Amino acid sequence: MSNVENFGFGTQIRKSPYFDATVKWGAKEFSVYNHMYIPRDFGDPEQNFWNLVNEAILCDVAVERQVEIKGPDAAHFVQLLTPRDLSQMAVGQCKYILITNADGGILNDPILLRLAENHFWVSLADSDILLWAQGVAVNSNLNVTICEPDVSPLQLQGPKSGQIMQKLFGDSVSELRYYWLIETELDGIPLLISRTGWSSELGYEIYLRDSSRGSELWEKIMAAGIPLGLKPGHTSSVRRIEGGMLSYHADADINTNPYELGLDRLVDLNMEAGFIGKSALLQIKAKGVERKQVGIHIKCAPLSGPNTTFWNITNTSIPVGKVTSAIYSPRLEKNIALAMVSIESVNIGTQLQIEMGSEKVPAIVVEKPFYDPKKRITSKI
Q1: In the structure, what pLDDT confidence band is assigned to residue 178 with cuts at 50, 70 and 90?
Q2: Which of 44, 238, 266, 322 is the most buried (most CB within 10 A)?
Q3: Strand, helix or coil at 137?
Q4: CA proximity to 340, closest of 322, 356, 326
């Protein structure tokens, strides 16, 4: 839809606490994610990308809903949900995890935050993990309480984000390490801050713990950031694909397993703890996978935007897979994409053909991530 006036906003889809502020600051298009509206357009998406990589953007990501898990058995229960070994996870630490089902399929790839010994948040990508977790708990015989708390994150991302955070919270915030969190407040607004984000840039997520103060928080951050070049924005498809970051439902789903994505590091089959999908993942690892995710360059005129369908891929006219996420990178001056292809077509340099509507265009398998593969940007201050 071309402008916000065309939306029929109903009560069955929830509005973010920042909804009014984002409209005031120029949000023009929205989509739905985790049963909530999320701003997807503040103008030119290429300019949004340059704002992100050169200065900073503030994004409403309240759609990243939290599943709160508390109780004497909380740590045991959280380990049941994921194949990543959490035995050394400290209070105040965050971890990128996968949540798998009994077949080893991926249900979500959230960030896990540990607020206290028996208090966790699972910060979700787009799927109903609250219902999954509550269902698992029913027959687990574990003493846990599971709910969705009043928590709504913002993302402040980009090279100037650290300076903006110091203006807001003081110099001590610069001591916050990558993938760690602190609980704090801003003029009485209760917050949690983590050094995380969905941008592959230096950044922070600011979790609001009182939804009545959404506009107030947005305005305070913008006021502090404007002198440093802060712009309102939206999560950048260009930057996240450059960084090889997954978009759930596009690059992964319930029929995708961790080994197909090269995420072996998030699976520990040797730990004593059991987790849902362990036996299936043991079998998958032993057998080997038949397909894998790769990066590709698509050799055609610059794409006008991200793909909205899965494009079929062939290798010498034989179907071998699909493009899951594609975009033109103005920085790399190339069409870059994530794709899932058969194991015979994963080698770097493999020549492929992409079916884009009625035409076939050439492509080549390349290394991913496409930019900053060592993640040096996100880990510096």
Answers
A1: very high
A2: 238
A3: helix
A4: 322
* pLDDT at residue 8 in the model: 65
Whether 249 is in a domain gets the answer no
Contact 227, 55 (CB under 8 A): no
Q: Which domain holds residue 203?
A: 4-63+151-241
Query: Strands 56-60 and 230-233: what pairing?
Result: parallel
Based on the fold, state whether residues 26 and 125 are members of the same structural domain: no
Q: pLDDT-derived band of residue 2, with 50, 70 and 90 as boundaries?
A: very low
Chain-centre distance for alpha carbon 187: 29
For residue 349, with 0-12 CB atoms within 10 Å meaning exposed, 13-18 middle and 19 or more buried, which class applies? exposed
Contact (Cβ atoms closer than 8 angstroms) between residue 363 and residue 298: yes
36 pairs with which residues across the strands? 14, 33
pLDDT band at 6 (very low <50, low <70, confident <90, very high): low
Examine the pLDDT at 4 and tell me if it is beyond 60.
no
CA distance 103 to 281: 7
- pLDDT for the residue 379: 74
Rounded mean pLDDT, 144-172:
98
**Cross-strand partners of 318:** 315
1 pLDDT above the threshold of 50: no
Instruction: Please indicate, yes or no, if residue 27 is contained in any of the structural domains.
Output: yes
* Cβ pair 303, 328 in contact under 8 A: yes
What spatial distance separates the first Cα and last Cα of the chain, rounded to whole Å? 38
What residues does 366 pair with on adjacent strands? Answer: 295
Pairing outcome for strands 152-157 and 111-116: unpaired
